[in-house]
């Protein structure tokens, strides 16, 4: 059972999300929040938090930073009406594991919750590559990043949204080998999860924008 917290300052939005999630046996709503501070308190310990960006007292970006610091295992999905690349990029850098637009079909929101909870792959890798383009090579590593050629290859596939079985098949190695490589990549980058690793890969210039698997 995936425990979900709903954070939005509009009660009708939260009620709609709750009704939609209640239709699925593997999802349960364990809390709600009307502002960012409440989201941090209610979300700590939950599996997934659906987080609005524009909220009173503390906005969704600040709440995401605080929540992921306080509860590293909690995954945040930013849900927003704003189709704004800068806001989405800021949310991902703040610690969000993905984002969904409020106008997206209900099934997309449900699958986003499941995907970020499973940590199998990056949510919407095509969109991530698009919004990452202006930020490519914009950051310097806080510490030296010495990835092996194979780890760089694995990172490339991570940024394409591929899960371990897909990467293993592409590189003709076992899933356990890929699991080890992914763990090493996240550790060397200091990344919270695959989405954060992808963000860092673009910011550090480790991955060329728009690269596709060979």
From TrEMBL:
It comes from the Bacteria. InterPro entries: CheY-like_superfamily, NreC/VraR/RcsB-like_REC, Sig_transdc_resp-reg_C-effctor, Sig_transdc_resp-reg_receiver, Tscrpt_reg_LuxR_C, WalR-like. Residues 3-117 form the Response regulatory domain. CDD domains: LuxR_C_like (cd06170), REC_NarL-like (cd17535). The modification 4-aspartylphosphate is found at residue 52. Pfam families: GerE, Response_reg. Residues 140-205 form the HTH luxR-type domain. PANTHER family: TWO-COMPONENT RESPONSE REGULATOR (PTHR43214:SF43). This is Response regulator transcription factor. It comes from Nonomuraea recticatena.
């Amino acid at each position: 059972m995936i425990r979900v917290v709903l954070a939005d300052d509009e009660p009708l939005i939260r009620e709609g999300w709750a009704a939609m999630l209640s239709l699925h046996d593997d999802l349960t709503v364990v809390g709600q929040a009307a502002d960012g501070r409440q989201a941090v308190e209610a979300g700590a310990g939950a599996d997934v938090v659906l987080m609005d960006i524009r909220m009173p007292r503390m906005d969704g970006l600040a709440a995401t930073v605080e929540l992921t610091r306080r509860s590293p295992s909690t995954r945040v999905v930013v849900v927003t009406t704003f189709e704004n690349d800068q806001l989405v990029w800021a949310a991902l850098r703040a610690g969000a594991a993905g984002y969904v637009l409020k106008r997206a079909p209900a099934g997309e929101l449900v699958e986003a919750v499941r995907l970020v909870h499973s940590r199998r792959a990056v949510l919407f890798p095509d969109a991530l590559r698009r919004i990452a383009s202006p930020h490519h090579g914009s950051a310097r590593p806080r510490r030296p990043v010495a990835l092996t050629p194979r780890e760089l290859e694995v990172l490339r596939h991570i940024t394409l949204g591929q899960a371990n079985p897909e990467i293993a098949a592409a590189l003709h190695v076992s899933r356990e080998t890929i699991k080890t490589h992914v763990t090493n990549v996240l550790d060397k980058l200091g990344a919270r999860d695959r989405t954060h690793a992808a963000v860092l890969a673009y910011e550090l210039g480790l991955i060329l924008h728009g690269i596709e698997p060979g």
